[in-house]
Amino acid sequence: MENTLYIGMSREKSLRTSLDIISNNIVNATTTGYRAQNPLFEEYLDKQRGEKEALSFVMDYGQYDTTKPGTMQLTGGTFDVALSGPGFFGVQTPDGLRYTRAGNFTTNASGELTTASGHKVASSGGGSITIPQDAKDIAITDDGSISSSSGVLGRIMIQEFTDPQSLAPEGNGLYKTNESGTTATNTKAVQGTLEGSNVQPVLEMTRMIEISRDYQSIQRLITNEHERQRGAIERLGRVV
Fold this sequence. Notes:
Layout: H1 3-27, E1 37-46, E2 55-65, E3 72-74, E4 81-84, E5 88-93, E6 96-100, E7 106-107, E8 113-114, E9 120-121, E10 139-140, E11 145-148, E12 151-155, E13 158-160, E14 168-171, E15 174-176, E16 182-183, E17 188-191, E18 193-195, H2 201-237
Antiparallel strand pairs: 1-2, 3-18, 4-17, 5-6, 5-9, 5-13, 7-8, 10-11, 11-12, 13-16, 14-15
Helix pairs in contact: 1-2
């Protein structure tokens, strides 16, 4: 077996995964409520038949989010809501309940409160929230309760989780988890404000440069090994 080549290829694969994640972070540097993602790797030991020592490969097995909050941006929008604390908004999707930190909400043709991508914002009871067309002086309080001059209209679902890393990103700012969240006690809703992305572009660009250098180093290793093997074959093939 070409052990050096296999080890090099495993490292290249892990670098490609890192590059994909970093590229996605950079693209979402201005996305509301986006949280930077980071790859997770571990050593994988494989004992080859006939070998005295196991080979050490690189295996990527997941990713985790940077949970540091993004910068709060004052917008003044009636349905713009940021979360101060660890909680997440509940969102209704065709695939079930999902969660998001992006609070740039709007209303659909039926007056239901929705996310920017059109999913209904879940109420504290799991239903939807309807905003009457003639509603005036709409206010959203710390616990997500929405009211107008006519009275209370509903309350946005805000959930907290014991393990924030259990929330797996699904795209469009949505997260899925099997963990049962609890009603937020350490999170406050802030009307007229949005949470920006927590991506640090300069840091991500630095990481991208490091990956490029590592990839070039692995390429040189593989090329040198290839040349070594070719030279050995040429010498063995010479007629004495």
